[in-house]
Amino acid sequence: MGKSALLARFAHDLRRAAERPIIVNAVPSSLVALREPPQTENAVLLENYWKQVICGAINMELAQQIGFAWKDDQIALVETAEIAGFKNQSIAGSLLNRVISKINVGGIELSLGKKQTPNHEKLLQRVRSEAGKNRLVWLLLDDIDTKFQNTPVQQAFVSSFFSACRYLINNISGLGIRATVRTDVWSSLRGAEDLDKFDQYVTEISWTANQQKEILANRILGYVRRNEPQSKISRGWSTKGHGDALIAMVFTQKMRWGESQVASDRVLRILASGRPRWMAQLCRFASLEAVRADRDRIGIQEINSVMGEFGRRRLSDLYKEHGHQFADLKRLIESFGGGPRRYTTQELATRITNDYIKVVGAPGIPIVDGVPYRDSWQLAHFIYKCGFITGHNIGERSLDVPEFVSYESRPDLLEANTNLDDGMLWEIQPAYRKILRTI
């Protein structure tokens, strides 16, 4: 959905800011490398762990910017007792004060560049003068939910990270944190203690139809400006005023969809499941097919021709993203091959039972998202959570009732026996249909 891209864009904007904030880019593995996390569900211990490694990562960045290196990376970690003393202070200044106090007692040996630096007094003067002890610090953490499984230990590990962030930003001045997490993981954490206080911090990434249309038009306009910078289009057109005309330069205005003719951007949006990156990739595949067929516009024929390759890549993404949650995901998904694209709830359970469970055998089915296998409803809920299927309000769409319903909006479906489907059918996402030969 563009989480990493938005985080990279935010970092780009920070680097251009006049305040020159300190930017710490991190991924979970880089923080875990500073100190092994405790194997516990104890939220207090885990929260203290996250506070320490967050401050350790900031310390490393401060050291790099000042120009000295630690002899031992473990020294960069700030102990829990020290973190408690940061309250209402600048985090950059607080961390540097800890460094200075430790150097003064001779407990840390530092090197400046590649040379040994025995004169700590001059080094300390440089720290005080050049470190910028009141500069803002931004920690940007991508994919905190990497390899997440919906187990109590993993829930405690990830949710305690957010609790640590909340403590740090509320008690330490000059610190900002942005982290990305998949929406299905966030939904799984809703029951964790303390996360009900986080709604004010959450920004849901969703792309409206108009935004996706503008993204598509912008990519076309960007291409024209790079290749024909002096043209009338480059100099005078904009996506706001000429979006439809830009799209019409590349795509046929209408494409056949079922029994109707609909706008090309709508077809692309549906096939890409509302994901801009998927839409861009589908357009690239279709453009190559149009060139091969010597056509001056991309039409539904070109799109249909590349849906097999496009679907293969989407399935590959699905297996990479969720395979660690269910080791037999590929075989479960392939069991839908050659079948219908749309199911009632009972038909969905029957399909999973007959074409997967009976073939594999219940004893051979691995753990499902951290929980031992139980029944077909559990597997149905999992592929709904992964985005392989979506709820479809066929014939019921209105201003108050969306046509498609995802796990993020209704995570309780296919799980609560009192309301398994809310009257909906279940539909395989369009991106996967051709590669699975669904009808």
Provide the β-strand percentage band.
Answer: 5-15%
Q: Can you count the helices?
A: 18
Kindly report the average pLDDT value: 81
Name the strands of the widest sheet in spatial order: 9-12-10-11
Number of strands: 12
- Counting structural domains, the number is 3
In short:
Helices cover 51% and strands 10% of the residues.
Secondary structure elements and pairings:
Layout: H1 3-15, E1 22-26, H2 28-32, H3 43-66, E2 68-70, H4 80-84, H5 91-104, E3 110-112, E4 115-116, H6 120-130, E5 137-141, H7 152-171, E6 175-179, H8 183-188, H9 209-227, H10 232-236, H11 239-250, E7 254-257, E8 260-263, H12 264-271, H13 276-292, H14 300-322, H15 329-334, E9 342-343, H16 345-360, H17 376-386, E10 389-392, E11 404-405, E12 425-428, H18 430-436
Helix pairs in contact: 3-7, 5-6, 9-11, 13-14, 14-18, 16-17
Structure description:
The protein has 439 residues and is of the alpha+beta class. It folds into 3 domains: 3-201, no CATH class; 209-322, no CATH class; 329-436, no CATH class. It has 18 helices and 12 strands. The strands form 4 sheets. The protein has a 4-stranded antiparallel beta sheet with strand order 9-12-10-11. It has a 3-stranded parallel beta sheet with strand order 1-5-6, with helices on both faces. A hairpin with a 2-residue loop joins strand 3 and strand 4. The chain is flat, with a radius of gyration of 26 Å. Mean pLDDT is 81; it is low at 70-81 and 103-131.
Features:
3-stranded parallel beta sheet, alpha+beta, flat, 18 helices, 439 residues, 51% helix, 3 domains, 4-stranded antiparallel beta sheet
